[in-house]
Amino acid sequence: xxxxxxxxxxxxxxxxxxxxxxxxxxxxxxxxxxxxxxxxxxxxxxxxxxxxxxxxxxxxxxxxxxxxxxxxxxxxxxxxxxxxxxxxxxxxxxxxxxxxxxxxxxxxxxxxxxxxxxxxxxxxxxxxxxxxxxxxxxxxxxxxxxxxxxxxxxxxxxxxxxxxxxxxxxxxxxxxxxxxxxxxxxxxxxxxxxxxxxxxxxxxxxxxxxxxxxxxx
Length: 217
Known about the structure:
With 217 residues, the protein is of the alpha+beta class. Helices cover 20% and strands 35% of the residues.
């Protein structure tokens, strides 16, 4: 079980290399739209124009748990606060959602999904100009860790009516069991919005189902 906990913790750290973005809606100024809020078990971003239904039985991390899990600093905001996008103009990154199959203290391998919004201008890599270069940079960072990650850039994927660049990273845990991380990213209004999904090779359908649950709002 110790290797599971080690790899699970490693996965949580590795997703911190990613980011995400904000998009608008034509009905009213995008700056007045709610960036992130909950409607029962549905996560909604008016600004980004999508909603995500939490899988039945999955755990929704609190704002404080997101901050603790991701070791977030003062320059980022965690949680679905319901505030308008205008409030976050000076914020470099927002982590509005983290869900997992089991509670965060579980010793089981714990599939999870997160959303990250990050200001493109705040990224340290000046070569990142679009979603493709962002994905490629993420792939390189994972491979540079030299812990056995293999990465593969995927095709463009349409999620909730928008086109995302994608990639998959895998890390062998034990024989016939691997960690799978999928990244879906796009740029809008100077930000990158990313869905980062982590699962295991014995049940990749869990990740597919989360992507299917993301709909246009």
